[in-house]
Amino acid sequence: MAELKGMVDDHGTIYTCNKKLPEEFKLKLVEVLAELQDNECHVKCQFPKSQLHKIDGVKNVYRVYIDKTSGWRIHVQYGDDKRLHLCEMLEPAEHDRGTKKKVIKQKKNKYF
Predict the structure, then answer these.
(1) pLDDT one digit per residue (tens) for the chain, 112 residues
(2) Are the CB atoms for 26 and 70 separated by under 8 Å?
């Protein structure tokens, strides 16, 4: 059995995703969350479904794609407890490359 990475959803990110995501992306969300919980992916640093990667210019915030072409994303952070903390879901309209720092600064209570 695969070793699982701890995941924390203090801000109700999964609930928000379930409410706002169109039906065709809900299965992808489950696949992405399963991949993020698989510790083997973190050990090998390979995330084929979610494409987890650090956001340039922002400290300790990572981007996870629910669906890259449509623009649905989740921001996550690694906590001191070695668990993955889900920060928030971003809708396609909220996420432009030029405004990523502004989006994070406006919602800084969701990030540590």
Answers:
(1) 568 899 999 999 999 999 999 999 999 999 999 999 999 999 999 999 999 999 887 888 899 999 999 999 999 999 999 899 999 998 998 765 555 566 666 666 677 6
(2) no
